[in-house]
Amino acid sequence: MNNLLKMQQKLIPQVLDMMTKRYSILRQIYLNETIGRRSLATELGLSERVVRSETEVLREQNLISVETSGMKITQEGIDLLDGLRDIMNEVMGLSTLEEKLTQLLGIKKVILVPGDYENNKSVLIDVGRSAASYFTNILQDGDIVSITGGTTMLEFSKSIKSDKKFENVTVVPARGSLGVNVEIQSNNIAANISKSLQSKYALLNLPDKLGIESMLMLAQEPEIKKTLDLVSKSNIVVFGVGRADEMIVRRNLSDKKAKEILDKGAVGESFGYYFNQAGEIVYRLNTIGIDLDSVKQAREVIAVFAGAKKIEAFLAISKINKNLVLVTDEHSGKRLIELINDQQKMVK
Predict the structure, then answer these.
(1) Using CA atoms, how far apart are residues 298 and 165, in angstroms rounded to an integer?
(2) Of the candidates 234, 237, 239, 238, which has an alpha carbon nearest to the alpha carbon of residue 142?
(3) Do residues 223 and 191 make contact, with C-beta atoms less than 8 angstroms apart?
(4) For the sheet containing 236-240, what is the strand order?
(5) How far apart, in Å, are the Cα atoms of 315 and each of 5, 75, 306, 343?
(6) Type and span of the H or E element at 323
(7) Fewer C-beta within 10 Å: the chain N or C terminus?
(8) Could you tell me which residues come within 8 angstroms of residue 307 by beta carbon, excluding any fewer than 6 positions away?
(9) DSSP tag of 81
(10) Are residues 80 and 100 part of one domain?
(11) Are residues 172 and 295 in the same domain?
């Protein structure tokens, strides 16, 4: 197929540009579920005239339907997107970026989705779907899956789809509850994923931040101890990436504690650990949930984030497990490569 595309490009130079444009339009309609032409033009940076003519072609091919509420992708369109994903990643240069970034980071795999989250928030949907697709493909009978909370993990959980029952899989929250938004707490996300997988699950019904005495006492409660034992044996860990400054706010830490953590050079946070740019742990909170040793021993560790604002935070925690898989957006991937190259120049 790639050879055919190369020959077509020789004969009809504009064929790949047209293919990429229509693929991007179809994909954006898919991400939004329902969208009008004007909104679509704005999100893709195209004129309404171009969008009108291109979507008319897609409609004629039964790839989208046009209704009063807006344009929707058809099942035929979804099937086409799935079939074209690998080819378009090659055409758009994503495959080359993925390979380069995988080598630079020294991790198992990098999965990039087209676009820039900072300019198009719907890209997060595609990031979540790509992470969910990888996750369901590597999930094995008997696995224990630990999942963190947050908006990215919520999007990930919404994208879990499987016709297969995973009755011997157990999904658990990686940590206790954090913040007041129940929807993005790890307990809720773990339960939603379990429902989609038709699997077992266990909950951690306690706050993430506790005093040492309270933490030690509650950790011995039978139900909590049972869940913590499962968490410590996690085969798969899926987590979002947190910037140190943002997680300090989410955890409602005192100004004094915030200053202490940031003064130590913290740029990223995961699992209650704060990391500096060198990937060193500079602070650890007294929290209940998965510890770093358990993360390091997991068979699969999947980091999911969207947006270049989090690249420093991810780079700080990218060495936690050699089996790490990164799922993010194209622009963040490019910025990661630039950041790694800059750091390497500084070392030289």
Answers:
(1) 22
(2) 234
(3) no
(4) 109-113, 324-329, 300-304, 236-240, 144-147, 170-173, 200-201
(5) 36, 38, 13, 11
(6) none
(7) C
(8) 117, 118, 329, 332
(9) H
(10) no
(11) yes
Contact 36, 1 (CB under 8 A): no
Rounded to an integer, what distance in angstroms lies between the CA atom of residue 169 and that of residue 163?
15
CATH number at residue 15: 1.10.10.10
Show the domain range for 53: 2-86
Inter-residue contact 323 to 238 (CB < 8 Å): no
* Tally of CA atoms within 13 A in the half-sphere of 345 that contains its CB: 6
pLDDT tens string 104-161: 999 999 999 999 999 889 999 999 999 999 999 999 999 999 999 999 999 999 999 8
* 149 and 187 belong to one structural domain: yes
Tell me the residue type at 207.
Answer: P
Please identify, among 70, 86, 102, the residue that sits at the C-terminal boundary of a domain.
Answer: 86
| pLDDT confidence tier of residue 207, bands split at 50, 70 and 90 | low
Q: Which two tokens stand for residue 186?
A: 């790890």
Instruction: Say yes or no: 238 and 132 in one domain.
Output: yes
The secondary structure of 263-301 as a DSSP string is HTT--EEETTEEE-TTS-EEEE--B-B--HHHHHH-SEE
Residue of 73, 231, 261, 228 whose CA lies nearest to 146: 231
Q: Say whether both 156 and 300 belong to one domain.
A: yes
Token pair of 170 as six digits: 């157990």
Report how far residue 149's alpha carbon sits from residue 240's, in angstroms, rounded to the nearest whole number: 7
Question: Is 0.70 topped by the overall pTM?
Answer: yes
Question: What tokens appear for 252 in the block?
Answer: 């409602």
Residues 44 and 110 in one domain: no
Distance, in Å, from the CA atom of 314 to the CA atom of 292, rounded to the nearest integer, reads: 15
Q: Are residues 268 and 304 in the same domain?
A: yes
Cβ-Cβ contacts under 8 Å for 312 (sequence gap 6 or more): 243, 267, 268, 277, 339
- Can you give the pLDDT at residue 2? 63
> How far is it, in rounded angstroms, from Cα 340 to Cα 21?
31
DSSP code string of 196-221? HHT-EE----SBSB--HHHHHHHTTS
